[in-house]
Amino acid sequence: MSDASEVIVIGGGLVGAAVAYGLAREGASVTMLDEGDVALRASRGNFGLVWVQGKGDGMHEYASWTRRSKDLYRSFADVIRGGDGTDIELKQDGGLELCLGEEDFRANEDEIRRMHNQPGVGENDRVMLDRADVLKMLPLIGPEVTGASYSPHDGHVNPLYLLRGLHGGAQALGARYVSGAQVRKIEKDGEGFSVSTKVGAFRGGKVVIAAGLANKWLAEMVGLSIPVEPNRGHILITERMQPVIPMLLVNARQTADGTINFGNSHEDAGYSTRINPAKLAEIARSVIRSFPVLKDARIVRTWSALRVMSPDGFPIYRESESMPGAFSISCHSGVTLAAAHALELAPVILRGGFNERFAAFSPERFDAAPAA
Amino acid sequence: MLRRLPEQKGRRVRFLFEGEQVHALEGDSVAAALLAAGAGATRTTPKSGSPRAPYCMMGVCFECLVEIDGVPNRQACLIEVRDGMRVRRQRGAPGLPGEAEDDPV
Ligand SMILES: Cc1cc2nc3c(=O)[nH]c(=O)nc-3n(C[C@H](O)[C@H](O)[C@H](O)COP(=O)(O)OP(=O)(O)OC[C@H]3O[C@@H](n4cnc5c(N)ncnc54)[C@H](O)[C@@H]3O)c2cc1C
Ligand code: FES
């Protein structure tokens, strides 16, 4: 039985689905293999920001890549709507990072200065606003808010519609999606690859490993060392309320329905997605410092999910040198980068020159021996 | 529309719904008591303002939101009636603290 396609994409999260969509748009035949609901899936539990400010502090290539994806997003949203009709609810009206206290304010100010001085970051119009400016945008801030950094580039989408739109669009272009297909083995097979799964074997000319945290062990099978680790984040959803937060914040947003979503916590909890009540309390306390009117707001839902984190927080992209044609793609901020993954990264997988194009994102950057 | 089963017995409880006396049985949820009393719509939605009433009766649909003793957005199906409780329709999204309307009662 020959079950062959040009490219097999392992993982149907935001990264795998964006790449599969991009490949299908280029005319490639694609099979997307996904484990299913038992897997750890950041794409089903994230915050939905298409966020630019602060991204790439320490790696200007990541700053530019993020900005590029943001710039592509509007047309990308139209492409998705044209694909399967999904409206991903993209809004790009700018965003704020509120500062609590003087130290916070200085930290954001310093970050702006550092990033300005990085070569190649390009136009960086993120600015600091003082308390009086912020009050004009957000009249309900608390007394501890000293100001905010603002970027006109920040925005958000509905991340579940994004995931659905990527899947729908890829399938409308002929991509095949196989759920329940936990990958167990990836082997070289003649000119291509054979991928063994729980539901049988699949053959592909190329294989793209985009399985989130599972890249750590799947990519080893093609000779790549991908040091991604879980980082747990919690999100809380309030009851519906009158407008409290009319602007998009990095850690909070109010939907058109009136619910407020917040959370921006980072925690090392291994592979556990259990809720940590102490963390919830910490997040809530911080939001109440920003918006004291929320002190009596009721939380109606909460969850946690695991980020796919590299040691420096930047993406890891690599084509295997021992097994050319096998690629590993992983990143934090898979929502933000979805447009770039679909429209700019996927074509390079087909055309060649991947490692040259994405040299900055090679895992080799982690190999350097620590300075003595 | 909805009637109590004839064998239902228990101590009577009285509470106020939109300022009117309503009779209920001890152990009723606020939602059950309002349905049994024929209260009709118990809230309006924040988006379209359309009228709603309790639906799932088990805490998952949030259709039964009411204001109880001045606290907005309470799930009527999860709260037992008590004597003297003051229940009002939840109109749209609740106001912010400090701008609550005065209770007419
Ligand atoms: C709390 C939180 C908030 C976040 N907020 C944002 C945000 O606001 N903006 C932003 O840009 N990013 C955000 N992120 C990050 C973003 O969600 C992730 O970068 C993105 O979802 C990663 O997608 P992925 O496809 O790599 O991984 P995943 O979503 O984890 O998907 C991996 C897929 O691979 C499949 N899989 C796993 N193992 C196998 C196997 N052996 N065989 C076959 N399939 C397998 C799984 O079923 C899964 O579908 C957030 C993340 C978290 C946790
Ligand atoms: S009736 Fe559904 S939550 Fe109360």
Shape verdict of chain B: globular
Percent range for helical residues of chain A? 25-40%
Q: What is the count of β-strands of chain B?
A: 7
- Please give the radius of gyration of chain B in angstroms: 13 Å
The main sheet of chain A comes to: 8 strands, mixed
Tally of helical segments of chain B: 1
Low-confidence stretches of chain A: none
Largest interface, by Cβ-Cβ below 8 angstroms: which chains and how many residues each? A-B, 14 and 10 residues
Note poorly predicted spans of chain B: 100-105
N-to-C span of chain B: 28 Å
Q: Quick check: average pLDDT of chain A?
A: 94
Mean pLDDT of chain B: 90
Range of strand content of chain A: 25-35%
Measured as a percent range, the helix fraction of chain B is under 10%
Structural class of chain B: mainly beta
Element pattern of chain B in H and E: EEHEEEEE
Radius of gyration of chain A: 21 Å
User: With helices defined by DSSP (H or I, 4 residues minimum), what is the helix count of chain A?
Assistant: 9
Relative strand content of chain B = 25-35%
- Helix-strand string of chain A: EHEEHEHEHEEHEEEEHEEEEHEEEHH
Structural class of chain A: alpha/beta
Please tell me about this protein's structure.
The complex is a heterodimer of chains A (372) and B (105). Chain A is α/β, with parallel strands linked by helices and 372 residues long. In chain A, 30% of the residues lie in helices and 27% in strands. Chain A has nine helices and 18 strands. Chain A has helices at residues 14-25, 60-84, 101-117, 131-137, 159-172, 215-218, 277-290, 338-351, 354-357, and strands spanning 4-10, 30-34, 49-50, 95-100, 127-130, 145-151, 155-156, 176-179, 183-189, 192-197, 200-209, 229-240, 248-249, 252-254, 259-262, 299-309, 316-319, 326-330. In chain A, the strands form four sheets. In chain A, strands 1, 2, 8, 9, 10, 11, 17 and 18 form an eight-stranded mixed beta sheet that branches. A four-stranded mixed beta sheet of chain A has the order 5-6-4-13. Chain A has a four-stranded antiparallel beta sheet with strand order 14-15-12-16, with helices on one face. Chain A is globular. Chain B has 105 residues and is mainly beta. Helix content of chain B is 7%, strand content 30%. Chain B contains one helix and seven strands; from the N terminus they run ββαβββββ. Chain B starts with 11 loop residues before the first strand and ends in a 14-residue tail after the last strand. Residues 100-105 of chain B have low confidence and may be disordered. Classes of the chains: A alpha/beta (372), B mainly beta (105). Flavin-adenine dinucleotide binds next to helix 1, strand 2, strand 12 and strand 16 of chain A.
